[in-house]
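Q: Could you fold this chain for me?
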Amino acid sequence: MDTQRLILFFVFSFSLLLIWTEWEKEQRPKPMPTAAGAQQPGAIKAVPGAVPTPSTAAPAPVATTVPPMAAAAKGEMVQVTTDLLVADVDTLGGSLVRLELRKHKETNDQTKNLVLLGPEHQYFAQSGLTGDAGPNHRTLWRLLPGERSLGEGKNSLELRLVAEGKDGLSVEKVYTFRRDSYIVDVALELRNGGTVPVSPHAYFQLTHDGKQPAGGSSLAQSFGAQSFNGFAQYTTDRKFEKVQYSDIDKGKVDHAKQAGDGWIAFVQHYFVAAWVPAVAAPRDFVVEKRPDGVYSGRVVLPVPAIAPGASAKVVAPLYAGPQEQNRLKEVAPGFDLVVDYGWLTIIAWPLFWLLEKYHSLAGNWGVAIILLTVTIKIVFFPLSAASYRSMAKMKLVTPRLTKIREMYANDRARQNQAMMELYKTEKINPLGGCFPILVQIPVFIALYWVLLAAIELRHAPFMLWIHDLSALDPFYVLPILMTVTMVIQTKLNPVPPDPVQAKVMMFMPFVFSIFFFFFPAGLVLYWLINNILSIAQQWQIQRMFERDKPAHGKR
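A: Sure. Below is the predicted structure, expressed as structure tokens.
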């Protein structure tokens, strides 16, 4: 098997795997609706309007309905603007109900800023006190005076809301926004105005309807190759864990329920929102599906006992923004793992690091992809050369192989014996071209995921008509050039002795080039440059062997 056939076989197999994955998801039986009073194992009971209750809290009545006054109340929408964010906070619940990213545009309309959190997917960041004693995300909070826009020369601003709980407990919710940051500190400042100590629990949760965000960038994403979409968490003991929707639906969620540290996030392609409490203290993690069909994931933190007249404070930073590696590494341990590089992450990381270095030199992500492709080609040059030398030898003896097939057309055993004798005489390993390519396949897959998952390539221009390396080539120039290079490679490869196989190989480039018409431009650019370099290397090696043709071409 030569290089061209092996690469085509790999592309075909990988594509079939993606198609099968998507088909299985579509055909998978849908879970039965959850009964209104049902509770998943290990989960906190929640119904629309319910107040979360921690599993570690002392037994207490669980509020299952919202008080009529709170349900009928109407809140005020408060908008906060920074250099990176436009945030809408609803005083009914004190929740962050809409978050617009000013430096990132919508996938399908680049004239509009991307809205990360918002009502379209019931994607909200909520917080409050558990149980029915303290204010929560159903309580009407009162807005305190303050700045609403981060002005020039200021590095931060605070948005303060206040609400009263039971038995003299009052809470101030403080949102702190900072310049050049996607981290919003959310603090609950509690004061016990009652006559007995209180030991409340604070919760910080994200909700989402579980549907994929609009705007896929390639056919590969439609086939199920998109990055993970759903809840994920990290703890020191169990490290990074993804929570699949199917497991939540079945009530079989396997993740850390209690831990001494860690964070919880909702991950989607290119972006992430996460509660990342910094203090190492016991906490509960809950991921569940509510009866109204909305998924929720939260972290519940205990608040130290507050004596009468005393105060306490609990803080949980919220990161809501792009999956930019330089930012993620600064947020929390393991937070950079939300970038989904698939099962070859260990290879993908150094590839992205090198890609980023080339971008810092060239200032263009397309040029960086070309430089990375050249680097990979240089690293694998000895293996590729061995493969091409094997193919060059095979091409020289192809006429003799054809004659053997004709001579022993009715005697397969004698035919195979004669062919093996020829290989032995000419010192040719018929599989010599396979292993060098097999070694490179993990790198190809890892780079595929890097180019698919890196937000740095989203809306990144290359040159001329290529304005977005993460989207399709609008004029299909790169896929057409890719098809041409595949045809050239086929011409350089030895023609299979079997006429049927030869005809199949002749049409293979045109069949598989269809996939490249639906791949992101950045990925096609990589394959195109790789093919051009391969053609040059293969042509040079073949030319060297052509000079020795009389020695190998004897009949």
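A (continued): The CA atoms of residues 212 and 229 lie 7 Å apart.
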